[in-house]
Q: What sequence folds into this?
């Protein structure tokens, strides 16, 4: 596969799972929450139920903030497992998200891309206050952050992407989107037709059966090489 079209002015990124260690951080947060409840809860099964509720709630109207979504998804998952829920559990989860660190190669790679003249933006299914702690760990390299809170829509809705492009003052031919989520970001790329690179970190997330991104890389540090091969660096 190759990256078609002209050199983009902007690179847009999914945040959690692409730049930030979401799976690892969520596992640690859920371990802290569940261990306080006692009993023998299968953590993977619990997270799968939490994820299901989170995605369902994100698609409901009226729009809920991500803080509200995480709290309600956690409460519903706990109810399903017969566990007591209190607001401190939700506070622990949401506060842990902003402390999740970047993957080891991310800051250096972003610096290379920024030095090469690309502008860098994040498009994320979160709230401004939650993501601020993550962005602070990215070396001041991110030019713009677009959130579901700002767009009042969650990926894979076209609304959040169109809001991002309007905010950045670009069309979709002026960007390449770099992401880790097939069912959110790549589903939107399939529908809207923007160029996409999938960072497949071996988490077990399955590719879409009817769509292939322009490129697939195992880690973010492979992206500058792709761009160099394309004559963009």
A:
């Amino acid at each position: 596969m190759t990256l078609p079209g002209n050199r983009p002015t902007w690179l847009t990124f999914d945040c959690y799972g692409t730049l930030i260690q979401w799976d690892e951080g969520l596992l640690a947060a859920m371990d802290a929450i569940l261990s306080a409840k006692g009993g023998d809860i299968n953590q993977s099964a619990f997270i799968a139920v939490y994820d299901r509720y989170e995605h369902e709630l994100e698609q409901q109207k009226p729009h809920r903030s991500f803080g509200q979504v995480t709290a309600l998804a956690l409460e519903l998952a706990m109810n399903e497992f017969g566990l007591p829920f209190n607001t401190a559990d939700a506070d622990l989860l949401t506060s842990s998200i902003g402390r999740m660190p970047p993957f080891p190669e991310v800051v250096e790679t972003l610096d290379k891309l920024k030095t090469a003249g690309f502008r860098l933006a994040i498009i994320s299914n979160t709230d401004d206050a939650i993501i601020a702690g993550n962005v602070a760990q990215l070396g001041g390299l991110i030019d713009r952050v677009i959130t579901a809170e700002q767009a009042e829509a969650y990926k894979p809705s076209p609304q959040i992407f169109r809001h991002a492009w309007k905010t950045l003052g670009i069309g979709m031919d002026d960007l390449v989107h770099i992401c880790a989520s097939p069912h959110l970001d790549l589903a939107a790329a399939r529908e809207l037709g923007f160029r996409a690179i999938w960072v497949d970190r071996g988490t077990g997330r399955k590719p879409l059966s009817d769509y292939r991104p322009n490129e697939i890389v195992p880690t973010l540090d492979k992206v500058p090489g792709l761009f160099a091969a394309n004559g963009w660096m």
